[in-house]
Amino acid sequence: MKCINLASIKSNNGKVFDFKDVIESVEGHAVIKFNNDNLLAVLRKAADNTVKTINKAPQFQGRPNEFGNLVQWYFAKECISAGLKYNAPKDNKGHLKESGYPDGEIEFEGKHYYIEVKTYEQSKKQQTLRSFFYSPSMTSKITRDSPHLLVGFSTKDLRLTGFHFTDMFAKKVKLKLEFNTSNRELYKDAELL
Fold first, then answer.
1. Residues 99, 168, 84, 79, CA torsion sign
2. For the ranges 81-90, 121-130, 153-162, 180-189, which has the lowest average pLDDT?
3. Is residue 10 within a helix (H) or strand (E), and if so which, with residue range?
4. Is-contact 139 91, C-beta < 8 A?
């Protein structure tokens, strides 16, 4: 059995760090402060069109996280319609990667911007439960120094009520260590009682 030094792991559990410092330490790339009013105007229009398009559609019947995926898809589509070069980021091995942070990468006026799309229940905006996470990966999608933006779409009864943009440059994150597994491991036929 390999020994894990839990004392050193636990000493950082629950600590708060600057997001930009975490990304620079783990990824070796800087989080740059966002400063582009022209891009923000285009992104606001794309977000507004996303709200209008989704709210004109029949009421969504799936789970809230599936609704978030739908919003992400429509937002990307609206960004492309607005003339932005919007893609799922490629990982550090050059492969497109859907899962993990960030959701998208935008190229605008020769510069690159990472973007994360989230939905949150309007009535829970002040809730303190975890709603954003970044997990380091051997196949990271963060491959350059860049501004990092988050667009949060507020919802009520799986309808969109608005949106907000957040520059991740000044955000704080808390380290939450966990060990996890999958259903495949938990429910192996040979090990069921």
1. positive
2. 121-130
3. helix 6-10
4. yes
Q: How far is CA 4 from the centre of its chain?
A: 30
- pLDDT, tens digit, for every residue of 4-18? 666 767 788 889 999
The strand pairing partners of 105, in sequence order, are 87, 114
Name 146's bridge partners: 31
- The first and second tokens of residue 152, run together, are 């949060």
Helix, strand, coil share (%) of the chain residues, nearest 5: 35, 25, 40
Q: What is the distance, to the nearest Å, from the Cα of residue 51 to the centroid of all Cα atoms in its chain?
A: 19
Q: pTM here?
A: 0.89
The Cα 58–Cα 70 span in angstroms is: 13
* Residue 105 pLDDT greater than 90, yes or no: yes
Alpha-carbon gap, residue 145 to 168, rounded angstroms:
13
Of the candidates 172, 170, 145, 167, the residue with the CA atom closest to the CA atom of residue 34: 167
Reported as a pLDDT band with limits 50, 70 and 90, residue 73 is very high
pLDDT in tens, 165-188: 999 999 999 998 887 888 888 888
3 φ, ψ (degrees, to nearest 5): -90, 130
The β-bridge relationship of strands 104-108 and 111-121 is antiparallel
